[in-house]
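Please, structure for the following, as tokens.
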Amino acid sequence: MIGMVLAAGAGRRLRPYTDTLPKALIPVAGQTTILDIALRNLAEVGLTDVTVVVGYAADAVESRRADLEKTHGVRLTLVPNDRAEEWNNAYSLWLARDHFADGALLVNGDTVHPVDVERTLLAQRGPGVLLAVDNLKKLADEEMKTTFDDAGQLTRITKLMDPAEAYGEYIGATLIEPHAAAGLADALEATWRRDPNLYYEDGYQEYADRGGEVRAAPIGDLSWVEVDNHDDLARAREIACHY
């Protein structure tokens, strides 16, 4: 099993920080970036072989590659996405299909969270696709919301859901088991070919609709944030120094 980080997006709502940098390289604690936190977390749980999907400002990640490897004791493989500024991240994750074939713990390159999330996912290994879910947070329209049936199987994952109907928010961290990898790759391909503007979470929906096992791992009462805008960045800077 490897670690994986999706860091291809442009992050236009975070300009001017993202004029020349991907979101993953925005500092959130001194010189510590979102990507630093992701790599530190993965290394702490023993996942030192890490694939990073890059796209927008990919050269900025490449230029820091050696330093990131030395700082965190990891070996990085960069997967380029030349459609990152045109298409959504279902395509990004599909591009890494050969890398998650033997299993991966995937984190979004714009999410700041403590290593407890990775530990929770690894402690609950078994389902084909295991989603880290915050079922305590009060939800609104922007969150990636989820519902599960009585047996714990994913029934719906989308932003387009009444928050009152949701079980919780998917926080951008997934454990993909090797036995699920091929089926998930097929579902992701069907998803981006149907509409390249779809999210990889739509690929999870496709995989679940085809009978693939997708379950939740509640993360408990943890401080985390998805960094989409300047308010989120301010929140990330409040909490990152405590990790």
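The radius of gyration is 16 Å. The chain is about 30% helix and 25% strand.
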